[in-house]
Amino acid sequence: MVSQRNVRAWQPAPRLNSRPEPTPVSRRHKPDYWLVILCVILLTIGLVVVYAISPALSESAHVSGNYYVFKQLIAIGLSLVAFLATSQIPLDTWRRIYKPLLVVAGLATLVALVMPVNPNYPAHRWVRLGSFSFQSVELLKFAVLIWLAGFLSHQIRRGTIGDSSQTLKPIAIAVLAVGFVVAGIQSDLGSTGVMVVMMAAMAFVAGLPLKKIGTIAGIIIIGSLLAVSVTPYRRERLATYFHPEANCQNSGYQACQALIAVGSGGMFGLGLGRSVQAYGYLPEAANDSIFAIYAEKFGFIGAVILIGIFMALFSRIKSIAERAADSFHVLIAVGVLAWLCVQTLINIGAMIGLLPLKGITLPFISYGGTSVVFVAAAVGLVFQISYYTSFVGRKKVDNSSRRQPNDNSPDRRRVRGAYHPDSGSRA
Amino acid sequence: MAFRDSGMVDMHVVKRLRVAYAFVLAAMVIFGVRLFYVQIIRYDHYKQAALSDQLKHFAIPASRGIISVHEAGATVPIVLNQRLYTLYADPTFIKDPATAAAKVAGVTGGKVSDYEDLMRTKHTRYVVLARKLSEDQSKAIAKLKLAGVGAEEQDYRTYPQGSMASQLLGFVNNDGVGTYGIEQALNNELKGTPGQLKAITDINGVPLAASKNNTSVKPVAGKDILLTLDLSIQQQVETLLKNDVEHAKATDGSAIVIDPNNGAIKAMANYPTYDPSNYENVDNADLFNNDSVSHPIEVGSIMKSLTTAAALNVGAIKADQTYYDPSHFKVDDFNITNIEEDGGAGVRSIADILNLSLNTGATWELMQMGGGEINSKARNTWYDYMVNHYRFGRATGVEQGYEATGYVPSPKNNGAGINLTYANTAFGQAMTATPIQMAAAFSAVMNGGTYYQPHLVDSMTDSTTGKVTVKQPVVLEKNVVSPKVGQELIPLLQNVVDKHYFVPGFDQSKYIVGGKTGTAQVAKPGGGYSDNIFNGTYIGFVGGDKVQYVIVVFMRHPTIGGYAGTAAAQPLFGDIAHMLINNSYVMPKAH
């Protein structure tokens, strides 16, 4: 059923397919530099905010005034390395090493589970190697992204994307495994949510029948209800979420202080150096709560601008996904998009009192090395994909695609070229 | 399927991607609306919420004025300040009370569970965890950087003379308010004006850099007060009082030494005393009272000196006259008698009335004021003297907390034995007065008729300007009695001292020493008088060419044998008079 020629368009992992290595279909062209520019803008904003509140942070942590900025600069340097690696090492290579990646991520998770915990953060989420430490779940996100994109594109190629035992079962197992380890043992509901939504988005876009997605969604909903109901602190957080102002003095403290920070920023904000909430009132001022500090400093105008920058970044990634060269590329881009969107939405939503606090970072803005390095790595993948995007009249392709799977795509050859978002209209 | 095998992305995929992306867009729009609501519409609400957390009001305590006394021509402080720290918590900001409590206890040495309970207090933003921390402890607490725990400065009083004059001084409670004694009466002068600091602070209450919300007002220190007390006289009176109270087996006692020529109090002692720096440990709050000022008593026979002075002043009697004393008078169907040793009926002199302490004599004096019987004229005259001349029934205004006014019965005929009541007032029963009222009234007689307000404040010093304000004696009443009557009283009272055979005796050729005993019956709670419980009182003077000191002594419920006035109070008067003479506080006669 699958013709030789079409198989060549895909680059299956050797295990899956023993056929000879195909050549890339899409020609390399100018990448989407806006991706990099927008990320740099966001990183700069984050660094400036961390710099502005570092007196408050270092005061309470008993470290020198430059400690936080210095550490964040190191993280940004590491992010650059990660970005270069993921944007230059061929995606094909990434796809092929999904297994070692999963194994490493699994091992890191195991190490995190057995590591003694920092009493301030009594969850088994961190892997520490000397002064260097990272959150194992970020690596797990990255590995799951690569695996799932490869897996789904393989199922698409085999035509078994709608098959329960071939496609649905492994995904369901993966979701349950993540739920059990990350939500269950590490108590990291936020990261679990990010991963589950990322996986769901990829499956949805990949064309998994809605009924099957519904099944998984059912499992997830039941699982989350269980997760919430068995853990007292989650029940408390949920109660807090519904009545934050009634619990300002105990469980709702952070939510209330975040709202106070955001609200007291007003239209124009207090000014860069004038945040008060960072001085001990708002917990995690540089990490999870940094959006509230930003909104306190720069007001409604600043907050809307920041959201605008995020939206610009997301729309670039979305455009790249729409024009990606093949289904693996599409799924990677969709996964990264979902990852960034969900993390941004959950983080900001919690700060403005629309969503419960989940303890996850705001991409690029939050202080903290692990998040920024892996987010940069993810964007690097998308950047590489942007080298190979097509500028295509979709409709034509679409019309023929289902009926004529063996179409040899003369159109595609004709239109294949650099996709320049600024260069003209879309079809 | 969704993908063509060629790898091209088909429209179906794009559709699903756009559907998913639409959710993100919708969420972002909702976020924008929500931000508008929180930051623009509800701005005032959140701004206020922020300020109520961030803007802290600090009272900068003003130094309380120090209190000094005279000592050998100089002054010496007897109440000073020590700056200590009060540790407080704002439970709102304490996330982990158990850990915070353990850390605090590590510095203060207090109980962890107590602190933890306090830190869990609901519905408050201020609980006091500990008081009187040293500066080092306060700094150690600050180093812990516990959110919601802070220390504030507070002045505590220290007393170089320990418990000396404790009831007179009073104490300063934990809220910084003077309570009892001088501290209460002059709280406004002593306390100064606290400064104020309003500042945006970090969570530990450390003010942040200048903000337009920050304001500050400097504190103004309280006034320093120099008392009229003489340290040496006070100390010696306290020692003598203690010894004599113990010797007389009295429950407690008090003594006043006052300058009758200006109302300045030289000593005002009570026994037992307490340690004002540990006033919290006093079980019975009665101990805080300065009985000389706060506790009116039926003064007993010492009143006869004032009755005699009044009768002399209105011309009802003459100092050198005699009269027939029947040894009992029937007044309102009640027999007024004397003590057993009165010698029976016979001819008596005015000197005998005072020396033998004849109740019938004092009654006779009252009768003379009414033209020979106790009638409304007698009552009104004596009432006028008690209230308008001697100022009983109203506070003297001495600088003490809780001054009592005492009680003088109305002279109006109430049909219930008013004459008997008034006969009783003539020898110090059926009316009450405080020792300081007695001292002031007696002083007015002895100085020839000027009633000076008894006072404890010599001068006040404004601690900002250094300006000293000397308190001038205040004359509350003139012509209390004529100077002649004052002069007539002196030998009459000297005679009492001479006849009572003090050991050692007084050399009346160099000094004048006179006085009058009092053995006051004690009213029973249910009415009537107790048969076996008495108060011993004594009022007297020492001087040279003129009266220089008036001494009033009070002994509560002495159980030593003999009459309370003679056996318990008189020795203390003698001891104090000797002490004043022996230490050259009394100027002898010039000759």
Q: Mean of the pLDDT scores of chain A?
A: 80
DSSP helix fraction of chain A = 55-70%
Strand sequence of the main sheet of chain A, in spatial order? 1-2
Overall geometry of chain B: elongated
What is the name of the CATH architecture of the largest domain in chain B?
Answer: 3-Layer(aba) Sandwich
Determine the number of helices of chain A (DSSP H or I, runs of at least 4 residues).
16
Explain this structure.
The complex is a heterodimer of chains A (427) and B (591). With 427 residues, chain A is mainly α. Chain A has one domain (30-389). Chain A has 16 helices and 2 strands. Chain A has helices at residues 4-8, 33-61, 67-88, 91-96, 98-114, 136-158, 164-185, 189-206, 210-230, 232-242, 253-265, 290-322, 327-351, 369-386, 394-401, 410-415; strands at 126-129, 132-135. Chain A has a two-stranded antiparallel sheet. In chain A, a hairpin with a 2-residue loop joins β1 (126-129) and β2 (132-135). In chain A, α8 (189-206) runs antiparallel to α9 (210-230) and α8 packs antiparallel against α13 (327-351). The radius of gyration of chain A is 22 Å and the shape is globular. The relative contact order of chain A is 0.15. With 591 residues, chain B is of the alpha+beta class. The chains are: A mainly alpha (427), B alpha+beta (591).
